[in-house]
Amino acid sequence: MTIILGLESSCDETAAALVTADGRILAHRLATQEEAHRPYGGVVPEIAARAHVEALAPLIEAALTDADMTLNQVDVIAATAGPGLIGGVMVGLVTAKALAHAAGKPLIAVNHLEGHALSPRLSDRTLQFPYLLLLVSGGHCQILLVRGPGDYARLATTIDDAAGEAFDKTAKLLGLGYPGGPQVEKAAAQGNARAVPLPRPLLGTAEPHFSFAGLKSAVMRAVQSGQYSKPDIAASFQQAVIDCMIDRTRRALTQADGMTALVVAGGVAANQAIRAALEQLAADHDLPFVAPPLWLCTDNAAMIAWAGAERFAAGLIDDLTVPARPRWPLDPAAEKARGAGVKA
Ligand code: KG4
Ligand code: ZN
Prior knowledge:
alpha/beta, Nucleotidyltransferase, domain 5, five-stranded mixed β-sheet, 10 strands, binds 5'-O-[(R)-(carboxyoxy)(hydroxy)phosphoryl]adenosine, binds zinc ion
């Protein structure tokens, strides 16, 4: 059975994992840099890159030890090659190149977004192509038609902030700390989602794009007004995001025939309220709903190893000159959304 080593280092998690071609996770190790970035309220690229340098090699060793294996027993080396913070991406990709070269193994340069996009097939081995994917993370908010490894059609993106970014900024405005998404979710559970009137940007428009900048400004005004409690603002914000996601995803479903499932992935997919709303939407459309377990939603290396497995099976192998790419869209043919501060 083919065994894939996956490396992830594109943001603030350093990770290494060993996964088999039939989707068994032999080992997965992760070191988060949360503490190093906490004083700054966000990820500092230079600090992140240095921390990846220190953490990565011991994590690879630990993963191999967990699986009771040596590097020679690994068949394929996969690493995130973008998009992300370029310093960190280079640490992981160069490490993968060195290992692949030294051990004489094939190298696979994985698009981090493809890692998220294919992760639901690692947790649910019955999930078949094509599926409709809501990919919601700290840097991205897209609706994609997933047809196979390397084969994506982007139906929608955000014209300004990503969904996770909106959660993180709201957490900052509310003084809830970093990382923001889980904190906002926790506060929202104690609040009234109808307490604060907030906008639902782009609701009802023909193209299923997203926008969160106006929502963030409205949250800021609500905080400054001093009229509302933190839990009420958090709950109202989360509900506004959910309303937008459901409306936009419902719209995308009308543009996508023959889907096998509605799937959500990326860090924001760890949010239980968002998962519940999407599950209901899928049921309304008689579609199965698939979401990876929480640890597989946020950044990790198992999803990178798995994307490597899927690409390897499809014959998509890279050579040692493959570049690190700070920007790397999954669907290069997709046009920029109007007014976009396009993220990838
Ligand atoms: O996929 P990910 O781990 O990293 C990126 O590739 O961006 O996503 C991180 C994002 C952060 O913005 C974080 O606040 C958000 O996912 N997030 C959440 C939750 N857990 C993580 N957002 C809302 N609710 C959560 N429970
Ligand atoms: Zn991610």
